[in-house]
Amino acid sequence: VLREWPHSYAGFFADTEAFLMKNAKVKLCLQASPMNGDLLLEDCNPESDFQDWSWQGDSLMNHGTQSCLSMVGANRLQTSLCSSVGYTRWDCSNSLLSPLGSSQGYLVANRKGVALNSVGGLKAQWQDVADRSVCEEKAEQDRYFPAALASTHMYGHTAGNMTLALGIGQEELEELLWFFRREDPSTWNYSVLALSFVAFILGLLLLAINIVRNRKRKIHMYREAVQTTQQAELEAKQALMPVQEYSPAELQKQEPVLQDQRSGEVVVQWKDGTVTSLYTE
Question: Which strands form 52-56's sheet, in the order they lie side by side?
Fold first, then answer.
């Protein structure tokens, strides 16, 4: 695990594993004072950065003060800069927190805030708002940052020259820190909004094109149907009313000219074509 983690770099990972430290006995949360670094027990407030904590290796860092939970003197606890020499690393087991490499006891809640006591119990157990052990939060942090747990050595104390002894160069370290940095999502939100607007306009355009094409297709089909109906009606009329054509010779044969017929005379046209008067004088 990381034994030292400068204050300037700890903040990059602060928001990734933030949790509240609630005491299992008094049901109050550990809060850091922004004025003097004192530790208080207050009603749990997830909106307060001064109640947000995260594991940075073996250290517990407060998000509001950007400082780490430390032991000052024999039994006094407060927050101090994570880059300072005197900040404390913590061992976490079964919801119990104790200074790493020390036998001074466990972090417990009392009337004044917190202190170290050799007696465990509910006053020495720390949980998040979901009643999960803070040790589980540490286990999850260890899984998310396996590269940061591979070495305990660090070169330098300044942000510009810091390089972890993990075989990671300065450029790769800066890229890693950029990935976990806090950034304003406004640019991304505006980009998504613009893309949504473009997609909306494109959808309207495609809808208009589809409507126009469907209308043209229906008009074409209607005209074809009308032409087909008219053609069928014309053919039906021609079938019902055939046109008979006769030659002039046939007309003359069917309507012989009766030059000798007189008024009142009855004539008969026989089958052989001869015409005779029915009554002769």
Answer: 19-20, 52-56, 59-62, 67-72, 76-80
Report the distance separating Cα 125 and Cα 97, nearest Å: 8
Amino acid at position 209, single letter: I
Q: Roughly how many angstroms between the first and final C-alpha of the chain, as a whole number?
A: 154
CA-closest candidate to residue 62, choices 85, 78, 42:
78
Choose among 94, 44, 97: nearest CA to 71.
Answer: 97
**CA count, 13 A, side-chain hemisphere, 189:** 4
Query: Is the CB of residue 89 less than 8 Å from the CB of residue 100?
Result: yes
Q: List all residues 6 or more positions away from 279 whose beta carbon is below 8 Å from its beta carbon.
A: 265, 266
The per-residue pLDDT for 143 is 66
Q: Measured between alpha carbons, how far is 2 from 149 in angstroms, rounded to an integer?
A: 6
Task: Name the pTM for this structure.
Answer: 0.47
Which residues is 30 bridged to in the sheet? 41
Distance, in Å, from the CA atom of 55 to the CA atom of 137, rounded to the nearest integer, reads: 8
Identify the pLDDT of residue 261.
Answer: 54
For residue 278, give every residue at least 6 positions away whose Cβ sits within 8 Å of its Cβ, in sequence order, or none: 266, 267, 268
- Tell me the helices (H) and strands (E) count for the chain, helix number first: 5, 17
pLDDT averaged per 10 residues in sequence order, the chain, 281 residues: 41 61 91 88 90 88 89 81 78 87 82 83 88 85 55 41 54 67 70 93 95 93 91 81 55 52 69 74 57
3-state secondary structure 47-107: CCHHHEEEEECCEEEECCCCEEEEEECCCEEEEECCCCCCCCCEEEECCEEEECCCCCCEE
Residue type, 141: Q
